[in-house]
Specification:
Keywords: Signal. It is a single chain. It contains two helices and eight strands. The chain has a domain of 97 residues. An eight-stranded antiparallel β-sheet has the order 1-2-3-4-5-6-7-8, with no helix packed on it. A hairpin with a 6-residue loop joins strand 5 and strand 6. It is an alpha+beta fold.
Length: 141
Amino acid sequence: MNTTRVASLFLLFALVIQCTVPVQADWLEVPDGRRVSGQDSIEVINLLDGTLKFALWAAGRDDLACRVRGVAKKQGPGVYLYEEASSQCVLRIFAQADRLVAEDQGDNCRTLYCPQTASIGVRSFVLGKPMPLTGQINEGW
């Protein structure tokens, strides 16, 4: 096999890997606005101090839903963590190339914010064009 052919196969392999493995977009910030996926929704507002104010509604079975609101601290470009001081709840909110993702790390937030059998798990929202914010993000603040 000649070196040109080996180099071509290597580049093709690298391209296939890059297209199939979800890569976090470090260059992407989390844009303000509301996003909806099915019955789930997330609203986010970037605050001047670099934190992210958010409200997450995660629908579950039997009309049960998890509802989390708070302010997440920036961990890196496009990555925020909300940690509940009195528990092991850690909610990670991060941007990917075309998505905004909320992830309950360790599934510990569900005990605080979800009724019975509902859970947050990993929720994904297409970034696209954001919808207008609702009062949900500001209720009780």
